[in-house]
């Protein structure tokens, strides 16, 4: 029986915020994690990968975990090693060891970029490709450790292109003053970088490679932290149209020399508005965890240095990474700490930024949940104005009148809507009334005035009102065949099957009831498909039996209204007449369900018949002499004599016959005397004799 359920946990189907949720799950440190799908973020303790420094986590558009990595191993959402996800060429002791970037225009392919560690002789910049449709929707690595460049520093960052579709990936070359900006488009990764020179060459001891590279969320600023003997911050402008880095400004957060065994400056993060820069530092044994704030609006080294605010001086922990969160707060890691610290109001200059030491408890000190690193993200996820153009719908789940809302209006000249039902509109936020429920393909064309000067086309599939039977009608079969059921994927929709699978389509595995629940922003819809076993036709030829030549029998298939019959004799009727012994079978097809049966027919208690002549002349007609009917007897004996009374043939086998020879020689034409004794199945004994003519 088919069932349909439509429910909603929130009456209004409204997107109150068009935030990007790909950065809503964090895994980092010693199996530590945070879930930003709720506020405040919930602590996660189910990670299965450790990292001393960098890591990367990727969620889908709804904030559901896809995978995470420590740069060496990729874990899927089951917290198991992803198919082909081991031996990735990052390092757990590298500052920005890995970052994940989606392939533009594709909803299931991701590029995982990695850089090596300063402790390696030749640190590499590489990428691997993950296809989330692999391994049944749990993801598989299809390209692993594709080499891009060598001798790179522990610095890796990514940001959206000005067109809000493509991505820039930036690395810093060792023993040079060069930054390499690589472009990722829908066509794939471009191995030809845009090279920018800033005048600051970083070389010397390998530890000078340590320190983060961080974009502002708007993508117009880039900060590189150079640890150890440089102990400096390099602040630069970034052109996200061309990939060119310019206007470098270098300043030193620590005004007194750091002690020898301390890293100095290490982590950095921009305030959400891009006006302030926070820098973490390990300066000395007395000050192992410093957090500075700088006003960077002047773009002047002296003015920036003069604006320095000491936000925190926390002991005994060592300062680690800084990372902006989806809630617009900045989170700070401290080595071997038990709790993560938070800058609550990072846009506020000075103490008003409200640094909250050890705000979120993660685990006890014995497990050392925090290390130096936090996840590295593509920073545009934290700026709503950097979102690609998109739209969503408002309204009650049951309404046929739907209002559509664009996620942002900046940079738009005009728009054109096609609602998939023949109606169109050119207003920014139109309302369309659908006449019937169902699935509709809605298209929005955005005519832009931004740097790209291009048009964006966004296609989204939606469901309207009481959309029923989206899995199709119930079905049945004779055998448990496999076939695909489901729906075409709808952007932003969560899928849940009764099997636990979370893709939009599955392949059946046998007779059962399959249901799919679709959910989007609290609006849920469920449909089921029942796959039942169809009864096969009952075919019964009965028990094995016997037959006589002059007493034929009828074999009946046992069913009259089948679609087709096929007997071993080639006949196509519900029953056949049989005169001879043998093995007979029939195949019956009813409603594409096929059944068959077989019966063995033997010779019965029949009359015994012997001919009066035979012609063994090799013309294949009457070549032998003996009992010519199929018969079953308790006892049988046949003797044949020549005219001189010599016994020339003798048998007790009713099926054996004389071929007209004696000791291998043909006997002459003439009459031959025979005698036959037999006992039938009823036990009655018979004796017969006669003459047979041999004619050649």
Protein described:
- This protein has 696 residues and is mainly β.
- The protein has five domains: 4-14 and 24-384, Neuraminidase, CATH 2.120.10; 389-464, Sandwich (Immunoglobulin-like), CATH 2.60.40.10; 475-533, no CATH class; 545-603, Immunoglobulins (Immunoglobulin-like); 613-694, Immunoglobulin-like.
- Helix content is 1%, strand content 45%.
- The strands form 15 sheets. Strands 1, 36, 38, 40 and 41 form a five-stranded mixed sheet that branches. Strands 12, 13, 14, 15 and 16 form a five-stranded antiparallel sheet that branches. A five-stranded mixed sheet has the order 48-54-53-49-50, with no helix packed on it.
- A hairpin with a 5-residue loop joins β31 (412-418) and β32.
- The chain is elongated, with a radius of gyration of 43 Å.
- The protein starts with a strand and ends with a strand.
Characteristics of this structure?
disordered N terminus, 696 residues, Immunoglobulin-like, Neuraminidase, 5 domains, 1 helix, 54 strands, five-stranded mixed beta sheet, mainly beta, five-stranded antiparallel beta sheet
- Rg (CA only): 43 Å
Largest sheet: 5 strands, mixed
Average pLDDT confidence is 90
Q: Please estimate the helix content.
A: under 10%
How many β-strands, per DSSP? 54
Low-confidence stretches: 3-18
In CATH terms, the superfamily of the largest domain is TolB, C-terminal domain
CATH architecture of the largest domain: 6 Propeller
Relative strand content = 35-45%
Q: Name the shape in a single word.
A: elongated
Helix-and-strand structural type: mainly beta
Q: How far from one another are the termini?
A: 78 Å
State the helix count. Answer: 1
CATH class of the largest domain: Mainly Beta
Number of domains: 5
CATH topology of the largest domain: Neuraminidase
């Amino acid at each position: 029986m088919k069932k349909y359920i439509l429910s909603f946990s929130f009456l209004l189907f409204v997107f109150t915020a068009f935030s990007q949720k790909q950065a809503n799950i964090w895994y980092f440190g010693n199996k530590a994690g945070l879930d930003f799908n709720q506020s405040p973020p919930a602590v996660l303790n189910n990670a299965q990968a450790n990292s001393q420094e960098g890591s990367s986590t990727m969620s889908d558009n709804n904030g559901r975990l896809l995978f995470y990595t420590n740069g060496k191993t990729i874990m899927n959402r089951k917290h198991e090693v992803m198919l082909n996800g081991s031996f990735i060429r990052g390092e757990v002791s590298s500052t920005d060891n890995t970052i994940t970037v989606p392939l533009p225009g594709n909803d299931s392919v991701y590029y995982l970029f990695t850089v090596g560690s300063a402790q390696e002789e030749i640190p590499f910049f590489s990428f691997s490709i993950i296809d989330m449709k692999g391994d049944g929707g749990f993801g598989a690595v299809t390209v692993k450790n594709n080499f891009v460049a060598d001798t790179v520093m522990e610095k890796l960052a990514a940001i959206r292109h000005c067109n809000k579709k493509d991505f820039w990936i930036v690395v810093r070359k060792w023993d040079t003053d060069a930054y390499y900006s690589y472009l990722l488009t829908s066509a794939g990764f471009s191995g030809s970088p845009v090279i920018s020179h800033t005048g600051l060459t970083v070389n010397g001891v390998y530890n000078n490679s340590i320190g983060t590279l961080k974009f502002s969320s708007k993508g117009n600023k880039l900060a590189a932290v150079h640890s150890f003997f440089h102990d400096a911050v390099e602040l630069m402008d970034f052109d996200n149209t061309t990939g060119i880095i310019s206007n470098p400004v270098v300043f030193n957060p620590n005004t007194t020399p750091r002690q020898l065994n301390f890293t100095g400056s290490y982590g950095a993060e921009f305030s959400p508005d891009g006006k302030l820069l926070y820098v973490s530092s390990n300066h000395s044994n007395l000050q192992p965890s410093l957090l500075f704030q700088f006003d960077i609006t002047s773009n002047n080294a002296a003015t920036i240095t003069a604006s320095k605010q000491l936000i925190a001086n926390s002991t005994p922990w060592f300062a680690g990474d800084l990372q902006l969160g989806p809630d617009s707060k900045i989170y700070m890691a401290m080595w071997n700490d038990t709790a993560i610290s938070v800058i609550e109001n990072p846009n506020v200059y000075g103490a008003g930024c409200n640094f909250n030491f050890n705000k979120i408890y993660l685990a006890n000190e014995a497990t050392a949940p925090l290390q130096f690193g936090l996840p590295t993200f593509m920073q545009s996820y934290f700026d709503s104005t950097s979102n690609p153009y998109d739209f969503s719908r408002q309204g009650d789940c049951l309404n046929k009148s739907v209002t559509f809302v664009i996620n942002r209006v900046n940079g738009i000249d005009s728009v054109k809507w096609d609602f998939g039902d023949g109606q169109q509109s050119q207003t920014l936020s139109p309302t369309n009334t659908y006449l019937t429920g169902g699935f509709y393909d809605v298209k929005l064309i955005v005519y832009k005035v931004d740097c790209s000067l291009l048009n964006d086309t966004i296609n989204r599939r939606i469901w309207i009102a009481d959309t029923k039977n989206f899995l199709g009608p119930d079905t049945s079969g004779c055998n448990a065949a496999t076939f695909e059921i489901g729906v075409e994927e709808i952007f932003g929709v969560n899928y849940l099957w009764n099997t636990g699978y979370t893709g939009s389509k599955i392949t059946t595995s046998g007779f059962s009831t399959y249901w799919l629940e679709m959910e989007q922003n609290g609006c849920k819809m469920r449909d089921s498909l029942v796959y039942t076993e169809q009864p096969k036709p009952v075919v019964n030829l009965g028990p094995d039996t016997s037959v006589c030549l002059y007493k034929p029998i009828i074999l009946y298939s046992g069913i009259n209204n089948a679609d087709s019959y096929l007997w071993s004799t080639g006949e196509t009727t519900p029953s056949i007449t049989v005169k001879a012994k043998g093995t007979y079978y029939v195949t019956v097809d009813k409603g594409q369900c096929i059944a068959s049966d077989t019966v063995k027919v033997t010779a019965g208690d029949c009359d015994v018949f012997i001919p009066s002549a035979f012609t063994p002349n090799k013309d294949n007609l009457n070549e032998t002499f003996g009992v010519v009917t199929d018969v079953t007897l308790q006892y049988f004996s046949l003797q044949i004599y020549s005219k001189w009374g010599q016994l020339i043939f003798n048998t007790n086998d009713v099926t054996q016959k004389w071929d007209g020879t004696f000791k291998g020689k043909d006997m002459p034409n003439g009459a031959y005397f025979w005698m036959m004794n037999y006992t039938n199945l009823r036990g009655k004994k018979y004796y017969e004799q006669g003459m047979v003519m041999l004619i050649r």
